Amino acid sequence: MLGNVVKMLRSTSLCPSQTVLLQSTRNTFVLKRRTPPNLYKKNQKPGKLRGRHYVYDLIEDTTVIKKPNLEVVLTTFVEGIGSKGEVVSLKPNIAYNKLLLPGLAVYKTPENVAKYAMEKDEKEAEVHSSAYAQRTVNKLQSMVLAVVMNKDHPWVIEPWHIKVSLRKAGYYVPESAITLPKTPITGPDLLKQNKEFVCTVTINNLEKASVRCRIHHWSTIPSERLPYVVDHWKMDAEPLFGDGGVSESGSTTHNELKD
User: Fold this and answer.
1) Would strands 207-218 and 144-150 be described as parallel, antiparallel, or unpaired?
2) What is the SS3 assignment for 61?
3) Long-range contacts of range 166-173, CB-CB < 8 Å, 24 or more positions apart?
4) Which end of the chain has fewer CB atoms < 10 Å from its terminal CB, N or C?
């Protein structure tokens, strides 16, 4: 009778019991007894352990040990990491999540190294000069470069003007890597104030970045200076040549910009 009542209550429970899935974790702790027990002879009964024998010192905790880098072979070009066939050494979590899981790399083995090694013809057809070149192109094309010119004396914009402006913005570019529009830009001319043109920067003699440049007049006489406009690079600007700010650029560039 009592058993039937217990079964009925168990079947009408509002919170039925559920199986809990327990998953083990790979944790290893290396311990050492602070007070080792006394030795005993062969076939002798071991002595009883005391409380002091259960005091341990932590020697190693595998959960906090830095794991070594993982070497993988890239199966394609990965920006900021390398080109196809290169062997790179990265942190395990980066190698797993960003390269191995998406299929951008495989484990380093002699077979994989030979399989993904690039032939000479493939290397010549490679469109990326380095792993960081495209990142440099993206940075240059996303900026608006202020080209400050004299308001009191005549001038013609030359590559060294762009070089100085880029250096102020934190980019070191040789003059030979800068290509200006074919149409000369002269001044001073207040009608060209804050108007935009485009110059080309060549990186590693391969990648090309189009840099948006805006002219700003500056006078050494404080009373002759134009009023300062806050965040002028965020405002819309008219093109200098009436064609989206782009004039026909020169067809040849020389040397290279090393990223």
Assistant:
1) parallel
2) strand
3) 166/201, 166/211, 169/143, 169/145, 171/140, 173/201, 173/257
4) N
Cα 116 to the center of its chain, rounded Å? 24
Query: What pTM, to 2 d.p., does this model score?
Result: 0.57
The whole-number average pLDDT for the span 95-108 is 90
**Top-confidence residue, 103 or 243:** 103
Q: Which residue has the tokens 């840099």?
A: 211
The per-residue pLDDT for range 211-233, each reduced to its tens digit, is 999 999 999 888 888 888 888 77
C-alpha of 158 from chain center: 33
Cβ 180 vs Cβ 110: under 8 Å? no
Taking alpha carbons only, the member of 150, 158, 142 closest to residue 210 is 142
Could you tell me the maximum CA-CA distance found in the chain, to the nearest angstrom?
111
Q: How far apart are CA 254 and CA 174, in angstroms?
A: 10
- Write down the residue that tokens 């005993």 correspond to: 40
Mean of all residue pLDDT scores within the chain? 82
Name the residue type at position 41: K
Q: Of the candidates 71, 84, 161, which has an alpha carbon nearest to the alpha carbon of residue 116?
A: 84
222-239 CB burial, b ≥16 within 10 A, e <16:
eeeeeeeeeeeeeeebee
